[in-house]
Amino acid sequence: MSDDAGIKKAASLLKQGAVMLDISCPICHMPLFKLKSGEIVCPNHGKVYVVKNEEEEAKVKREVSLQGVEETLLDGLFAVAKKIKEDPSDEESLKQVIYYLDALDRVEKLIKELKGQQSQ
Ligand SMILES: [Zn+2]
C-alpha cells in the first residue's frame, strides 16, 4: 500500500473518532491509532498489537492462539448444528453441541482472564 493510501486511511480513522498515538507501527512506521473500541490499528496494517516487554508479548501470543482455538470450536459447533437441523433426533450431535458450548465457555473465560491481566 502506498503512503497516500495510508494517509487517507488515517484521515478516515480520525473522522471515526480514533485517537492518534505517539507510537508508530513497528512495520511501516506510520503513527498508530486507538479506536473507540480500544483496539490499536495501523492505517496500513489494520489491527496491531503493541507490546512493552517479553512478558506481555507471551500473553498476546497466548491470546491469539486461544482465539484460534475459539474459532475452531465455533466451526465445529456450526457443523454439528447443521447435522441437528437435518436430523433433530440425532442425540449424539446434541451431546456434541453441549461439549462444544462448554469448551467455548472455558476458552472465553481464559481469554477474558488474559485480557484482564493486560489492562492492569
Ligand atoms: Zn503498519
CATH class of the largest domain: Mainly Alpha
Bound molecules: zinc ion
Strand fraction band?
5-15%
**SS class:** alpha+beta
Mean model confidence by pLDDT:
88
Distance between the termini: 35 Å
Explained architecture:
By secondary structure, this protein is an alpha+beta fold. It has two domains: 3-47, no CATH class; 54-119, Methane Monooxygenase Hydroxylase, Chain G, domain 1. 62% of the residues lie in helices and 12% in strands. It is built from three helices and four strands, in the order αββββαα. A four-stranded antiparallel sheet has the order 1-2-3-4, covered by helices on one side. β3 and β4 (46-47) form a beta hairpin. The chain is elongated, with a radius of gyration of 20 Å. The chain starts with a helix and ends with a helix. 8% of the residues are buried. The mean pLDDT is 88. The structure holds zinc ion (ZN). The site of zinc ion (ZN) has 7 residues, from loops.
Condensed summary:
The chain has 120 residues and is of the alpha+beta class. It is built from three helices and four strands. 62% of the residues lie in helices and 12% in strands.
Main attributes of the structure:
single chain, 120 residues, 4 strands, binds zinc ion
Topology:
Layout (H helix, E strand, L loop, with lengths): L2 H13 L3 E6 L6 E4 L5 E3 L3 E2 L6 H33 L4 H29 L1
Antiparallel strand pairs: 1-2, 2-3, 3-4
Helix pairs in contact: 2-3
This protein binds zinc ion.
